[in-house]
């Protein structure tokens, strides 16, 4: 008998075909709009789970006594309760690598858009306010030759550093728990303790995973250390930042502006003050979202899942 797999996010047709050849597949294109109780019912007999964002908690796993593998279509896996998965012998996988350049493009684009106030200017033109005079109130700040501090110089951090160093002649500072000789040699990056990075950077870009250690890593104290001319970019996870402190720092001009792809709560609440601030550029957690990259991620996630169910070691097993 075929093993049963639940796919709870929309995936390309060829990925579904691949899975259908090997497994019995229950497909929910969008769990948010479909029956969650039906999903929980199906979970009882499922061996594999493929999707993204869903919180894989103790409560959910209690509905899944036969589960062998959970395959995330994302690199971040802060939605997994790893302790619970480990204690039940359930494998967990993610999709690193294939999304690096696309995400770096988005985050560097967000940095440029924030520095040069592009969404605001787009609205200015489209709303007919452009009357031919050059208005100093619309000036942005330079990106080239400035100091970029990257917190979390991993795969995506490095790809951002590459763009900044070769494309924009930026000086790169970085902070990790460990030093990285490759970025120091290739992009002339300088390792800094967090506080020093915050004090010296014109742009602070956060790219760490969300873990107990990075929870609210950037809060009131950290915003106080930053220059009042600095721009804060968060492409990682909203929970890595104390959002109340960020709002205050922006409202009080403690920092100049922020570009955000991620938020404490997603989707962001409609009355979140961040949405009212002119010095904030927002994106809807869209870092890896091009058709090409999302297809690659879904394919890789399906391959990880298939490997796990066929008794092989998945390429992207989370240890
Ligand atoms: N906005 C979006 O759409 C996307 C967001 N992401 C987010 O970006 C994150 C990073 O992805 P990726 O670059 O592939 O991951 P990597 O694992 O390659 O890099 C993470 C980096 O963070 C550093 N890090 C981890 N913990 C800490 C800490 N406590 N303090 C300082 N640095 C730390 C690590 O270095 P060290 O171990 O030396 O500390 C490492 O260099 C993902 O986990 C995800 O949350 C990813 C893809 C898309
Ligand atoms: O946020 C996206 C991811 O892949 O992680």
UniProtKB/TrEMBL annotation:
Stored Pfam families: 2-Hacid_dh (PF00389), 2-Hacid_dh_C (PF02826)
Q: Does the keyword Disulfide bond apply?
A: no
The segment(s) forming the D-isomer specific 2-hydroxyacid dehydrogenase catalytic domain are: 5-318
Q: Which positions fall inside the D-isomer specific 2-hydroxyacid dehydrogenase NAD-binding domain?
A: 108-287
Domain of life the protein comes from: Bacteria
In the record, the note on similarity to other proteins reads: Belongs to the D-isomer specific 2-hydroxyacid dehydrogenase family.
Record protein name field? D-glycerate dehydrogenase
Q: Which organism is it from?
A: Metabacillus bambusae
């Amino acid at each position: 008998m075929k093993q049963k797999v639940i796919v709870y996010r929309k995936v390309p047709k060829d990925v579904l075909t691949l899975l259908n050849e090997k497994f019995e597949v229950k497909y929910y294109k969008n769990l948010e709009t479909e029956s969650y109780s039906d999903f929980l019912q199906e979970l009882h007999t499922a061996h594999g789970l493929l999707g993204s964002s869903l919180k894989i908690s103790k409560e959910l796993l209690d509905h899944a006594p036969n589960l062998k593998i959970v395959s995330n279509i994302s690199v971040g896996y802060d939605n997994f309760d790893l302790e619970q998965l480990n204690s039940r012998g359930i494998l967990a996988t993610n999709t690193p690598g294939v999304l690096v350049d696309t995400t770096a493009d988005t985050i560097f684009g967000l940095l440029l858009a924030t520095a040069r106030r592009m969404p605001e200017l787009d609205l200015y033109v489209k709303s007919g306010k452009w009357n031919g005079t050059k208005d100093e109130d619309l000036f942005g700040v330079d990106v080239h030759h400035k100091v970029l501090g990257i917190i979390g110089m991993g795969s995506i951090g490095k790809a951002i550093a590459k763009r900044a160093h070769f494309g924009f002649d930026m000086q790169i500072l970085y902070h990790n728990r460990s030093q990285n000789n490759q970025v120091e040699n290739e992009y002339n990056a300088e390792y800094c303790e967090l506080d020093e990075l915050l004090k010296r950077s014109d742009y602070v870009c956060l790219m760490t995973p969300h873990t107990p250690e990075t929870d609210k890593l950037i809060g009131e104290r950290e915003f106080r250390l930053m220059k009042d001319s600095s721009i804060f970019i968060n492409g990682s996870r909203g929970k890595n930042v104390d959002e109340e402190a960020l709002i205050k720092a922006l409202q009080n001009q403690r920092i100049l502006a922020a570009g955000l792809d991620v938020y404490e709560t997603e989707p962001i609440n409609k009355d979140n003050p961040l949405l009212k601030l002119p010095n904030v550029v927002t994106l809807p957690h869209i870092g890896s979202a091009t058709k090409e990259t999302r297809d690659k991620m879904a394919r890789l996630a399906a391959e990880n899942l298939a490997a796990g169910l066929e008794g092989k070691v998945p390429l992207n097993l989370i240890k």
